[in-house]
Design brief:
The protein is built from one helix and six strands; from the N terminus they run H-E-E-E-E-E-E. The protein is mainly β.
């Protein structure tokens, strides 16, 4: 029988992005942005360094939420149970 490989878990996907800048959205108007420093399994969560608290605002004229404000933090632990979405931010290339 051929070996069946297991699909990657969220931990494998997060570990591939260690050192990259990510945005963690906790609810439609609140989240964090920072560099992914570590991934832990017990408790399941992520550590962000150079983190910022970000708030989103959407209007009738601009229905896609935009970052409205930022507040600096140093390091933040985010439990994965409270996360709605994680985005990997790609910095624009300089030419």
């Amino acid at each position: 029988m051929p070996e069946q490989s297991l699909p990657p878990t969220i931990f494998h996907m997060l570990e591939k992005n260690l050192g990259k800048r990510i945005r963690v959205i906790l609810d439609p108007s609140y989240g964090f942005e920072g560099t992914l420093a570590a991934v832990t399994r017990e408790p399941s969560g992520i550590w962000l360094s150079d983190a910022e608290v970000i708030t989103f605002r959407a209007t009738i004229a601009q229905p896609i939420p935009q970052v409205a404000s930022r507040e600096e933090r140093s390091e933040v632990f985010v439990h994965l149970n409270s996360v709605q979405r994680i985005e990997v931010l790609h910095m624009p290339s300089r030419r």
